[in-house]
Amino acid sequence: MSIIERYSKFDQFFKTAYDAAIAEPYAKRFKEASANANREEMIKILIDIPCVKNLKIFKSYMGKDDVKAEKLYKKSRETVIKDGVVHEEENRISILTETLFTASVTSRLFLDALLDCAQYWYNSNAFAKCLKYCECMLALPANFYDRTIESMNDFLEHRKACVDLEYKCSEKLKVSSSQGKKQRRKCNTNQCVSLENASSASRVTAIPSIDGKQHAMLESCSDAVTLQFDEKRGRHLVATRNIKAGYILIVESPFAFSTNNEAFDRNCLNCHVTLKLNDSVKIPCYFCRTVSFCSEKCRNEAWKLYHRYECSIFDIFCGNDSEQPQRQSSYLLLAYRMTIAGCLLSNTDKVNNMDKTEIPVLNDNFLRYHGTNTNQECSDLGINEVYSPRDYRTILKLKTHCEKIEPNINLIRAIEAIFLTKCFTFVLSKMDVVCLKETFISLAVAMLHHLQAINCNAYEIVENLYDKKAHVWEPRYVGGAIYPSVSLVNHSCYPNVVRHSYPSGVVVVRSLRFIGKGTEIVDCYGPHWLSEGRLPRREYLWKKYRFLCACEACTQNWQYPLPETINYKCRACLEVTDIFGSNEKDTQNISIKKCHKCNGKIDCKKIKNQFRKSVEKRLNAISKMYEGRYEQALPQLFEHIQFIEKFFATPNIETIKTQQCIIQCYNQFGCISQ
Q1: What is the pLDDT of residues 271-299, one digit of tens each?
Q2: How far out from the chain centre does Cα 348 lie?
Q3: Within a 10 A sphere around the Cβ of 133, how many other Cβ atoms?
């Protein structure tokens, strides 16, 4: 629990600060600053409130406990007798893992538990897991154990044992790989593993590449799209050529990301892959017990980029949000990490030269740039200058709607921003970095900007779980992220693209149906016309994003459920005609019809036969999906949706069914969990 002067929890501090801020002499001044979107003035008003000025932050994290670790380790070495036979305790590896997370990294107990984990998996023929624990052991710094000769000898002894295990595992895996190649040559290439086995088997999720060439200015985008601007829609992406369904338009790593509370134990903090697959292990942080990593590589990367600046106060991001529904711990963590990333990226030269105990603070030039360009909807970024997801300026250009937000919401965000900045400067102080008042204000202003931007621009990171009864992959939220390029895509209640999460927070955006040249690329921000009526959709979008949706589903007021019959779209004039009819008996003898508008002939019989054959492709694809053959199902789904879009009017039930199948296929290609 965070120890704050006179406050035991953040919510208690927040309530006191909020109550003080809505009273005079602060309330009127803050409302004026909010109406003028003057973040700096908002921060300056609040930091003069006594309870805010006197706020003190102390270490707040779940540290190591060697006493508890000793008890756990003893328990892991116990044996039980069943039917007169001595067995290792069935949950030994779970207890060993808990010991590893609980023991101090500098203790012999940690070394023993780490070596035992490696040895356990070697004895279980799980050589890939054994190697991950060996890697963790071999990455331990020698200066952790140089305090005594005995400690250093223990360290070297354990390292030698892991080097031996690493060699044995490598040899075993070489033999296994050779045998696997021989076995695969014998097997029929069309054979596939059942879905139940495939979902629990180990696999490597490959991150796809964009289709076509990389855009010259949009670093994460295909050249099939480009950036445009107008007063009504702001910055947005449009197609530079005709795009078929399934085309990969954007592949982007997040500028910053966070993890939900419930995912700390089940997902890697850094890459978010599940820790429940057969080849997964759980690697601890060196200093806290709260977070988990899938490998030494992820632990090291996380520590270097963000976790070293949050570890000692991490409990702040693990609180209960029930008292303030507007606040989510994962969004607080996301804003905090956005500020860290901004500090690092805006001082590249200093970062490259800094030692292990230093961190540069936010470059004032970036905030000045932001202040002088707030009202400019369009800049050279993405048009005359490369638009990169690692460029902090792209974050400062994200929409926040600061001037449109109610003053009380801006007040909530400003108090959160000040609190998070107090936490950040506390961590910096432990690294011997002193932040003066001017620096604190700059950091708090940046933090407030990020909190406001998150509300309008954050995307979920998800993993997909397979429902065996329904035969569908259902998303489960793991965290949130900011993607500068994806944020350029506007909303539609009937989107033409779909997003999927991949390891390390990478998002892949694919076309969901045909997109004609010059057509805007549109995503769905939440309320889809299939699940919500027009009024609740528009109310949600206005409250959260401050725009009145005018997509085709809203302007034409599409209603769901749709009828099973669909209407033909004249190839010449696009006039809609009913060639199926409400009564099949009335139309079964009609083979030729004329378009009411252009008088062109419509071969009803031919189109109906083509339609039935195309529907069979969708049904056949669904059978393949049930068997886990998603890659084989996709081409048939693409053929079917291409036929439907060519001949039939939107919206129609066949397009909807096919799109849902395509989404299911892509769900299986991204991050999945058991």
Answers
A1: 999 998 777 899 999 999 999 999 999 99
A2: 25
A3: 28
User: Which residues touch 318 (CB under 8 Å, ≥6 apart)?
Assistant: 261, 264, 290, 329
Q: CB–CB of 573/600 below 8 Å? A: yes
- Residue 618 neighbours by CB under 8 Å, 6+ apart: 636, 637, 640, 654, 657, 658, 661
Amino acid occupying residue 122: Y
Half-sphere exposure of 40 (CA within 13 A, CB side): 10
Q: Which residues of 415-440 are buried (b: 16+ CB within 10 A; e: fewer)?
A: bbbbbbbbbbbbbbeeeeeebeeebb
Token pair, residue 301, equals 């990367």
Decide the pairing of beta strands 576-577 and 592-594: unpaired
Tokens 């202003």 found at = 445
Q: How many helices (H) and strands (E) does the chain have?
A: 23, 19
pLDDT digits (tens, 9 = 90+) for 476-507: 999 999 999 999 999 999 999 999 999 999 99
pLDDT in tens, 563-598: 888 888 888 888 888 877 655 454 455 688 888 778
Number of C-alpha atoms within 13 angstroms, CB side, residue 83?
A: 0
Question: Rounded to whole angstroms, how far apart are CA atoms 272 and 268?
Answer: 5
For the segment 241-263, the average pLDDT, to the nearest whole number, is 95
d(CA 665, CA 500): 11
Q: Quickly count: other Cβ atoms within 10 Å of residue 661's Cβ.
A: 21
CA–CA dist 220, 208 (Å, integer): 12
* Residue 117 to residue 132: CA distance in whole angstroms: 10
Report the candidate in 511, 522, 526, 507 with the shortest Cα–Cα distance to residue 669. Answer: 507
Three-class DSSP category at 289: coil
**Strands across the sheet containing 507-511:** 248-252, 507-511, 497-501
